[in-house]
């Protein structure tokens, strides 16, 4: 989006050659895709985002769960290794956190 618009604007105004604009846009696009493919699979690299629907799920430390973003599906997934019945509260684990950390980071 933004890189493509910037490249098009630079080429249209004559500030940079069209070939340079295209090369720059391609590098930004490919680096974004490759970064998301290879680095999001690493457990040590965490990104924190606001996700209102997932934020409505309550914490329960005994549940094994994972929340992730599916890049190519453009969606968040919340997986729990527990089955929930009808009218049962759906919870996930925020990880091993103290009460102070839970209040500070999760409200």
Shape: elongated
Give, in spatial order, the strands making up the sheet with the most strands. Answer: 1-4
Mean pLDDT: 81
Provide the succession of SSEs: HHHEEEEH
Global Rg: 21 Å
Count of runs of 4 or more consecutive helical residues: 4
Distance between the termini: 34 Å
Total beta strand runs: 4
Strand content: 5-15%
Taking the sheet with the most strands, its summary is:
2 strands, parallel
Explain this structure.
- The chain has 107 residues and is of the alpha+beta class.
- The chain is built from four helices and four strands, in the order αααββββα.
- It has a two-stranded parallel ribbon with strand order 1-4.
- Strand 2 and strand 3 form a beta hairpin.
- Helix 1 packs antiparallel against helix 2.
- The longest helix has 22 residues.
- The chain is elongated, with a radius of gyration of 21 Å.
- The two termini are 34 Å apart.
- The relative contact order is 0.11.
Question: Key features?
Answer:
107 residues, two-stranded parallel sheet
Task: Summarize this entry quickly.
The chain has 107 residues and is of the alpha+beta class. It is built from four helices and four strands. It has helices at residues 2-13, 18-39, 52-55, 99-106; strands at residues 58-59, 65-70, 75-80, 91-92.
